[in-house]
Amino acid sequence: MRFLGQLWCAVIVALLPFSGFAAEPESELDLDAIQKWMKENVDDRVLAGLGEIDTKRIQALHAELMRRLQGTNVYDLAGLAELAKEALPLLNQFEEAQPYAEWLKTHLDYFTAADELQRVAPPARGTNNPSVEAQEKVWTRQLEKRAKPIRADVYVSQLKPVFTAAGVPGALVWLAEVESSFAPNARSPVGAVGMFQLMPTTARSLGLSLSPNDERLDPRKSATAAAKYLKYLHGRFGDWRLALAAYNAGETRVKSLLDRASARTYAAIAPRLPAETQMYVPKIEATLRKREGVTLSSLR
User: Fold this and answer.
1) Which of 113, 189, 179 is nearest to 152 (CA)?
2) Where are the domains of the chain?
3) Which of 103, 171, 172, 268 is most buried, by CB atoms within 10 Å?
4) What letter does residue 124 receive in the DSSP assignment?
5) How far apart are CA 80 and CA 118, in angstroms?
6) Cα separations in angstroms, 56 against 27, 32, 94, 295
7) Fold for domain 152-298?
8) How far apart are CA 139 and CA 156, in angstroms?
9) So which residues are the catalytic ones?
10) pTM of the entire structure?
11) What dihedral angle (degrees, nearest 10) is formed by the CA atoms of 251, 254, 260, 265?
């Protein structure tokens, strides 16, 4: 949906003066990657209308957001909450942008959790990440004061049997709360779509069609594919934390980190995973404890 990329760029331009980000020197940006993203997501006419200065602002902020989410320092996510809060009302004004707003809402949690971690578990000397235990405590506190998503009442009872039929613990249906707050139309800026945020290549490999209708938007089909993928990942890594890290960051990356560290546990590679993934796994752990009263280590 090209309009989402166009609108998001416009939102970024509007919010950049308030975001606290300074544009990085051009020499420090991966211009090839940025230009590829711009070509795929932003209409040339929109860029022409924004002008050269605003285009550079978009490039700089997009690069900064991706750097922070895909970097390995969780504390780098602190300070993004205000940007997300400013962007949401603007995105929600447009029907076409609401799928992106749904995705952004779920990431607001990451930013507020990073803010809290910076306060309660600041970086220790020689480290640049909070412990898994500190993150689980922060997520537990956040979820204690949060009601389950309204959509959960509709979808959990429908989709839990889909997971169990695939040989996956039914409790993992709550993955949809972490991924999208059970929004079937959620869409990320990198192309993940649906309640379980499946990327195009992954979706196709799991038997979903993306054209003429995107089957990732179908809750049952999306759940079936997600459960199938989770079962495969658990079979490959033999551990739910590693399986979920692979679901978020990619199985190749997880396997490479395990091989380099000669390790077999999530804890051994967590500090070298993307910051988003480092927060994603303990967030799922806290969500399962809150919604189902189970832990990842208790799942079979």
Assistant:
1) 179
2) 1-70, 152-298
3) 172
4) P
5) 13
6) 13, 14, 25, 45
7) Lysozyme (1.10.530)
8) 21
9) 179
10) 0.82
11) -130
Largest CA distance in the chain: 55
Amino acid sitting at position 257: L
Bridge partners of 193, per DSSP, are: 187, 198
> Which SS3 state, helix, strand or coil, does residue 11 take?
helix
Answer whether 46's CB lies under 8 Å from 67's CB.
no
Q: What is the DSSP string of 234-252?
A: HHHHSSHHHHHHHHHH-HH
Q: Tell me which residue has tokens 């760029």.
A: 9
Q: How far is residue 279's CA from residue 276's CA, in Å, rounded to a whole number? A: 5
pLDDT (tens place) for every residue of the chain, 300 residues total? 455 555 555 555 555 444 444 433 333 334 455 455 555 555 555 445 444 444 455 455 556 667 788 889 999 899 888 877 877 776 777 677 778 788 888 888 899 999 999 999 988 776 778 988 899 999 999 998 889 999 999 999 999 999 999 999 999 999 999 999 999 999 887 789 999 999 999 999 999 999 999 999 999 999 999 999 999 999 999 999 999 999 999 999 999 999 999 999 999 999 999 999 999 999 999 999 999 999 999 998
What are the angstrom distances between the C-alpha of 10 and each of 49, 115, 118, 224?
10, 26, 30, 36
- For residue 85, give Cα distances in angstroms to 1, 76, 92, 105, 142: 23, 17, 11, 9, 17
